[in-house]
Design goal:
4 strands; mainly alpha
Length: 402
């Protein structure tokens, strides 16, 4: 009976090592992403997922390593066609302009506007609407020439990822959809293998420290080896009849497609770009651009009737009218620009552009897509795995001597 218990104890060592290896790797992956918000008592007693905790830093790394190198805002903006843009927003823009003209004239020249017959007002609307393609063409051209000042893509990406920790989690989870499950499973395999020498050693000598030390090594090595297999070697390397390469790097084409689709649909989509243009740090430059072209258009509209118009409105109200028109058009920009979303998404083709350039990256550059997510803190995951493994060894020791 005693021999059977000892035999069972020996056989359980590699099995428990496998379970420890799996659990520590599983926990290491979860600790990278969860919880989204800090749980516990700050600053030391608690935990927050490594990526959500450093999402601003992670976002800046992503911009620098991927978006900043691969996407040229100036080049992308040149793909916008003024005529197609006009077609996309024309119907809604006409409605917005009619309301703006009516409100501005009632505010700045109520007597003149009230006295004007319906035919006269319709003539004003018609002249403005006929000039829309000309104004849009000029504004698109100036936007393309000054897009770097108007659209801060770094600010857009960092703000979106900082405000949405679940999105940055999704980017890394989707990009590493095969690697992270492998990390978990590999703990089971390597844990069992590392448990075998511990079993053999325990058979000959039963020093109390053998099992805790074995657990520590299992927790440490399973995490460390899993990470190495994912990213090493960077380039295809011949080992006998086999060619090996890091799992993640071997999937460069597949990951490029997944990554670029998320970036295009969830991050650099027309809605976010429009918001960044209208609300970001470059919105002041956009306002100046609108002011330039709106003032120019108004001057053309009233040039024929300038003396009569100036007399009816007055120079002070005339300038106030132009200021109001510029302000209202800027404030209402989102009401018509969002109708250009479908055209803009097709014309800009950010996803296709990003995917092609990511596929062309060297393995060393491509590694930067995923590994920065935890490279700086991966030692924490390995240490946690080692501590948990050692704790499991003590638990196993306690069971044996109970």
């Amino acid at each position: 009976m005693e021999w059977n218990v000892q035999t069972l104890t020996l056989l359980l060592i590699p099995i428990i090592s496998a379970i420890v290896g799996w659990f520590t790797n599983y926990l290491a992956v979860k600790m990278m992403f969860y919880p989204i918000e800090f749980v516990g008592i700050r600053p030391f007693f608690g935990w927050q997922g490594l990526i959500p905790a450093k999402r601003r830093e992670m976002a800046e790394i992503e911009v620098e390593l991927v978006l900043g190198k691969l996407l040229s805002v100036e080049e992308i903006a040149q793909r916008l066609d003024a005529d197609q843009m006009t077609l996309a927003i024309e119907r809604r823009l006409k409605q917005v302009l009619r309301r703006i003209v009516n409100d501005v004239m009632q505010e700045s020249a109520p007597t003149l506007w009230a006295a004007m017959p319906v035919q006269g007002k319709n003539l004003v609307y018609y002249r403005i609407e006929m000039d829309i393609p000309n104004v849009v063409r000029k504004m698109v051209r100036d936007f393309q020439q000054n897009v770097g000042e108007i659209l801060n893509i770094r600010e857009l990406v960092v703000e979106q990822l900082t405000n949405d920790p679940e999105l940055i989690n999704e980017i890394f989870l989707q990009a590493g959809a095969k690697e992270f499950p492998f990390i978990e499973r590999s703990g089971l395999y390597f844990g069992f293998l590392f448990g075998l020498p511990t079993m053999v050693l325990w058979y000959f000598v039963q020093y109390w420290w053998i099992l805790p030390l074995g657990g520590l090594l299992v927790g440490y090595l399973t995490n460390w080896i899993a990470i190495k297999i994912i990213f090493e070697p960077k380039r295809p390397t011949k080992v006998g009849i086999f060619t090996i390469q890091g799992m993640f790097l071997k999937r460069q084409k597949e990951v490029s497609g997944v990554y670029s689709e998320i970036i295009e649909k969830r991050l650099l989509n027309p809605e976010n770009i429009t918001h960044a243009v209208l609300q970001g740090s470059g919105s002041g430059q956009l306002l100046e651009l609108i002011e330039l072209h709106v003032n120019d258009a108004i001057e053309r509209y009233v040039s024929v009737a300038q003396p009569y118009f100036a007399l009816g409105v007055g120079s002070k109200d005339y300038f106030r009218m132009k200021e109001m028109a510029v302000k209202r058009l800027f404030e209402d920009s989102d009401k018509f620009l969002r109708y250009a979303g479908e055209y803009a998404a097709e014309a800009l083709a950010i996803g296709d552009d990003l995917r092609q350039k990511m596929e062309a990256l060297s393995p060393e550059e491509f590694e930067g897509v995923l590994r920065p997510a935890y490279k700086q803190d991966e030692w924490k995951l390995i240490v946690v795995g080692a501590i948990l493994g050692m704790a499991a060894g003590f638990a196993q020791l306690s069971f044996i001597f109970t």
